[in-house]
Q: What sequence folds into this?
């Protein structure tokens, strides 16, 4: 008990210093080669899939608006139009996910027509001046993988390795940047702890198994892609770089003087932000620093729970030398705003997320907090790899997107001024499509889509991204 009290006090002191931290905003732009991009999700946008999600969608009550993905945005056929829209927004990069169930509809049977189609899509993107960054797992599994146990069985790691090997050999001449997983912790939480996604479990034990399998998939694919992508798609001297697309929030206690709020925030921060990341990218401490200095680093750098038995305020798990070799060459952070944590006996796990006075949430409940993007990016200097920022907002009324993009770009500029090796800024998704358990109700895309006639229109405020991209910074 004494040890826990000391740890809580350490967290309180660190947070007290952070609350008063001011982000310096100097300069208006980024350097040459900076990437401006968006994301196209296979299941959300392509249409006509046969995977574990298409089975899940048929079950009553699983999708909040009662819809099914169906034809989605028909990106499978309309990809040339979508690439043209990306160019109209002055983008120079696209994160594009592949659909595993199309490429390998049956175990060991790889569909050449699907591989050829993806080669055409990636080639068209390159021809248009868009650098493709390719996701292998975007929250869907082939039905044969799900039938064998999906993320509950280690055999899925070997199946994913073979899939990664095939796409590396077949598409490596079009791709130099790979992303084995898209936001693995977020998906594991929704599918195995909150029962909102297939297979619909609600228990910490399967959640832990799923995270372990996802870690194995990241590590296995990293090795396979490095080994089998031998082509340099853009002749820059790099055949293959493998990254991680990781969702993160800025976590803080609702009451800085309340040890229970602080302890819960520490736990939430470690579980959702840092535990998986530490297993992929060993962090390094600044010279002479032991644990959290409380000098403006993110709350997440105060080591908390889930870090190999260390106590709050201790050093990162790899501070004395990496326990694991790295499994990513770069990091894309999908910043999902603020998570302010308050102890509440009536909430699951006693955790209540609150919206602070003076702040607003988007239509999916994300607390909009551009200022803390800079703090989060500064905290990620410890991973010692290039970082890309990604943001997105559900703006059904069309009144928030313009300011949302502008303010997040402003604080990305501030992060660079503080020494962050930021290589790009993405706003996701490109198309408002099927948003998994939320169906078609959210309007997060830079383009709205009338799926009845597959008509695309620029979403209100989305042209701000084009202005920033054209200016390579603040317009």
A:
């Amino acid at each position: 008990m004494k040890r826990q009290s000391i740890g809580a006090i350490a967290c309180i002191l660190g947070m007290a210093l952070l609350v008063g931290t001011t982000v310096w905003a100097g300069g208006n732009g980024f350097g040459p080669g900076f990437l401006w991009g968006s994301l196209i999700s296979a299941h959300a946008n392509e249409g006509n899939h046969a995977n574990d999600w298409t089975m899940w969608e048929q079950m009553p009550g699983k999708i909040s608006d009662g819809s099914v993905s169906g034809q989605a945005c028909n990106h499978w056929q309309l990809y040339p139009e979508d690439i043209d829209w990306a160019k109209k927004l002055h983008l120079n990069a696209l994160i594009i996910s592949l659909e595993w169930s199309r490429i390998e509809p049956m175990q060991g049977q790889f569909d050449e027509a699907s591989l050829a189609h993806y080669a055409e899509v990636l080639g068209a993107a390159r021809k248009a001046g868009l650098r493709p960054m390719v996701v292998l797992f975007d929250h869907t599994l082939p039905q044969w993988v799900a039938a064998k146990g999906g993320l509950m069985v280690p055999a899925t790691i070997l199946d994913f390795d073979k899939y990664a090997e095939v796409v590396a050999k077949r598409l490596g001449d079009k791709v130099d940047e790979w992303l084995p997983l898209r936001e693995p912790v977020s998906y594991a939480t929704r599918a195995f702890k909150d029962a909102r996604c297939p297979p619909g479990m609600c228990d910490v034990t399967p959640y832990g198994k799923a995270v372990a399998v996802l870690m194995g998939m990241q590590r296995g694919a990293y090795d396979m892609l490095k080994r089998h992508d031998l082509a340099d798609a853009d002749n820059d001297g790099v055949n293959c770089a493998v990254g991680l697309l990781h969702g993160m929030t800025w976590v803080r206690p609702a009451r800085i003087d309340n040890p229970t709020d602080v302890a819960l925030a520490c736990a939430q921060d470690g579980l959702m932000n840092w535990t998986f990341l530490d297993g992929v990218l060993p962090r390094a401490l600044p010279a002479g620093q032991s644990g959290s200095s409380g000098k403006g680093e993110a709350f997440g750098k105060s080591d908390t729970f889930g870090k190999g038995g260390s106590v709050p305020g201790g050093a990162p798990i790899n501070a004395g030398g990496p326990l694991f070799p790295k499994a990513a060459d770069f990091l894309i952070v999908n910043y999902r705003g603020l998570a302010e944590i308050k102890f509440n006996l009536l909430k699951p796990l006693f955790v209540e997320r609150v919206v602070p006075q003076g702040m607003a949430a988007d239509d999916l409940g994300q607390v909009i907090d551009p200022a803390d993007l800079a703090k989060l990016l500064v905290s990620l200097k410890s991973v010692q790899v290039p970082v890309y920022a990604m943001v997105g907002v559900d703006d059904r009324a069309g009144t928030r997107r313009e300011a949302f993009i502008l303010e997040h770009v402003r604080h990305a500029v501030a992060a660079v001024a503080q020494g962050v090796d930021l290589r790009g800024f993405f706003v996701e998704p490109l198309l408002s499509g099927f948003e998994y358990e939320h169906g078609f109700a959210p309007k997060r895309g830079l383009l709205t889509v009338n799926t009845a006639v597959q008509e695309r229109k620029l979403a209100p405020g989305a042209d701000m991204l084009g202005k920033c991209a054209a200016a390579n910074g603040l317009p």
Notes: Confidence is low (pLDDT under 50) at residues 1-26, 287-321. The chain has 14 helices and eleven strands. Residues 56 and 198 are 6 Å apart (CA to CA).
